[in-house]
Amino acid sequence: MEEKLIIFSLEGIVYLLKIDYNNSGKSKCIFEIVYLQKMPYHNMNALNGQVTAVGGGAYMERCVWCMCNEQMIKYHDEEWGVPLHDDRKQFEFLMLEAMQCGLNWNMMIRKREIFRECFDGFDYEKVAAYTEEDIRRIMETEGMIRSRRKIEAVIHNARCFLKVREECGSFSDYLWGFSKGKMILYMGHQKGAIPAKNALSDTVSRDLKKRGFKYLGSVTVYAHLQACGIINDHTEGCFRYQEVMEGIQTVRKRG
């Protein structure tokens, strides 16, 4: 069993995150960890090298959910909540959310390269043309989630995705149309009341289902709206909260 310690802060309080790695390389996050006195990171030398400053050295406050491992931190810092207008990335994020159903996002991030290998880098035109032979190939890929129904759903959704592009010009234009091209800031979410779904995700999910998409219920859609930047659910103390809003119109709503 290997241990790793990471420092982060939440609402001005510095915490220590302990990550235990078992023999299979999986990690377990413990969030009620060690309370440390409020102090700037450069005064933490008493920990004598046991602590890693997430992000490579500069002390930054982050959303707590991403602190499980370095892959999740990288995803949070570089992708989550960034306004997304690239259809290939939209398809990738949306299908990762669909594949996650009944599982967890940490697993999706860890298996991301396997998914990319299986689905031609989430090239929706190629995926839409997949046959039974491709399904067998994917099912036999080492490390792949062996759910035939989910694999078939990704292929089916790629075909639906192409139809949306034909109708709307791009899937991104279609999706951002639900927020009129603006990033939404729900005020209640900064008080810790982040829902699993809301009225917006209900509306988007219903429309996607009418268009034939599968495995895209309201909870799954809400997670995608967070990931692609339509909803900014970074905590206000997170260093990414302001950064993802640069250059985009925002609208504040209750909720």
Question: How would you describe this structure to a colleague?
Answer:
With 255 residues, the protein is α/β, with parallel strands linked by helices. Helices cover 40% and strands 15% of the residues. It has a 4-stranded mixed sheet, with no helix packed on it. A hairpin with a 5-residue loop joins strand 2 and strand 3 (27-35). Helix 2 (87-100) runs antiparallel to helix 7 (148-168) and helix 2 packs across helix 10 (218-227). It is globular, with a radius of gyration of 20 Å.
How does the SSE layout of this entry go?
Blueprint: E1 2-10, E2 13-21, E3 27-35, E4 51-53, H1 70-78, H2 87-100, H3 105-110, H4 112-118, H5 124-128, H6 132-139, H7 148-168, H8 171-176, E5 183-186, H9 199-210, H10 218-227, H11 240-243, E6 250-253
Parallel strand pairs: 1-4, 5-6
Antiparallel strand pairs: 1-2, 2-3
Helix pairs in contact: 2-7, 2-10, 9-10
